[in-house]
Write a structure and sequence with these properties.
The complex is a heterodimer of chains A (211) and B (168).
Chain A (H helix, E strand, L loop, with lengths): L5 H10 L8 H9 L30 E2 L19 E2 L34 E8 L20 E2 L10 E7 L8 E9 L2 E9 L5 E3 L9
Parallel strand pairs in A: 2-5, 4-6
Antiparallel strand pairs in A: 1-5, 3-5, 3-7, 6-7, 7-8
Chain B lengths: L7 H20 L5 H18 L10 H29 L10 H5 L3 H11 L3 H11 L4 H7 L4 H20 L1
Helix pairs in contact in B: 1-2, 1-3, 2-3, 3-7, 6-8, 7-8
Classes of the chains: A mainly beta (211), B mainly alpha (168).
Chain lengths: 211, 168
């Protein structure tokens, strides 16, 4: 159309011509690199978690749910951790099965109000041979407000990476917790359901777990 | 797993070609440079995660990426709306300030043009913005769910409206 609009289009192009500042392209690119992790921030005082218990375990089920392209998606667990979301973890190691929380279960503690079970929740990956967190408080603010049930030993400040996975429907009365699942030189905090009787069940779907 | 994640190197071409265009498209719609950078980063993070689901036969990489950018901008505006409502409720309403440095570097005429574009009906406005981001009419049509011809009509209607506004 028309030459009539040539001048107007030229001005419009000029008005819409913005150039990113130097370095922005590389900064954003760096955020796309798998393996890069942002250190936990703000894990000061009341940081984290952990209630004791049984070893690692549990099983799982899961299905990573990446948020869609720019979409706003289903409800997901709040992620207050200063972690970095990375492209993907692939199929995850299954936690040990048949574990039971015998005491100190978050759901059994009066002061602990379990957050609602979301439709999806992050899986967190750590590097190193042992879980990076395990603290005396019942709620670990670094894992989206959900408690961690697993090995003890609190060492905060280690980098974590996060990928959101879809959760299977929660059994009646279950609350969401995290279990630590070592995997060679790395490991994961994986979501699991803590049932009222202390039993842990996988919160992820089976096809997300390694055979 | 719901989607496969493409290796970064496969995404690199799209990133290299479209980064500046996406940034300019986003920046023209946001007052704050910092917000524009955040939204641009979100666009590429979301695009990278969704790369395994991209179907080249369905649309061009540019149309696909600009679709993601439009969604990210919508999310941003929704979030901004919530923040403003919260501030109002808290009695701390605060006008959104222009970034003085950014404003200074742009001519008044450009600012006025952007404001006029923003005042266009939704689809006309989007047609102009997408064309200014160098999308073809076919790509604009794909994003606006209309034919290439309809996209052309939208765009030219928008130009006519802008010219009228400028002459007032």
């Amino acid at each position: 159309m028309s030459d009539d609009f040539e001048d107007l289009e030229r001005k419009l192009r000029e008005a819409h011509s913005f150039t990113p500042r130097a370095g922005l392209r590389e900064e954003v690119r760096a955020r796309l690199r798998p393996g890069r992790a942002v250190p936990w921030a703000g894990l000061s005082a009341a940081a984290a978690v952990l209630l004791a218990v049984v070893g690692v375990g549990v099983l799982l089920h899961s299905a990573p749910l990446r948020q869609g392209a720019g979409g706003t998606g289903a409800a997901s667990a709040p992620n207050r951790a200063a972690t970095e979301e990375v492209p993907g973890f692939g199929r995850l190691p299954a936690p040990a099965s048949g574990l039971k929380v015998e005491s100190g279960a978050p759901a059994s503690q009066g002061a602990y109000a379990a957050p609602p079970v979301p439709l999806s929740a992050p899986v967190y990956r750590w590097t190193g041979t042992s879980p990076p967190a395990s603290c005396p408080e019942p709620v670990n603010p670094t894992l989206g407000g959900y408690p961690v049930v697993g090995p003890t030993g609190c060492r905060l400040g280690r980098p974590l990476q996060a990928v959101v996975y879809r959760l299977r429907p929660a059994p009646a009365g279950a609350s969401l917790v995290y279990v630590a699942v070592p995997d060679g030189a790395t490991g994961y905090f994986e979501p699991a359901y803590l049932l009222p009787d202390g039993t842990l069940e996988p919160a992820l779907t089976p096809d997300e777990l390694r055979p | 797993m719901i989607h496969a994640v493409a290796p970064l190197q496969e995404f690199e071409g799209v990133y290299a070609e479209l980064f500046n265009r996406i940034y300019a498209y986003v920046r023209a719609q946001l007052r704050s440079e910092a917000d524009a950078e955040d939204v641009t980063a979100t666009v590429f993070m979301n695009a990278y995660r969704a790369w395994g689901r991209y179907e080249p036969q369905a649309e061009t990489p540019a149309a696909w990426l600009f679709r993601i950018a439009r969604n990210a901008l919508l999310d941003h505006h929704r979030g901004a709306g919530r923040r403003e409502r919260l501030l109002r409720v808290a009695g701390r309403e605060r006008p959104e300030f222009e970034d003085p440095a950014a404003t200074a570097e742009r001519s008044l005429e450009h600012e006025r043009l952007l404001a006029l574009v923003a005042s266009l009906p939704d689809r006309q406005r989007e047609a102009v913005r997408l064309r200014m981001a160098e999308l073809s009419f076919a790509e604009v049509g794909s994003l606006l769910d209309c034919s290439e011809d309809a996209a052309k009509m939208l765009y030219h209607r928008a130009l006519r409206a802008l010219r009228e506004m400028l002459s007032e």
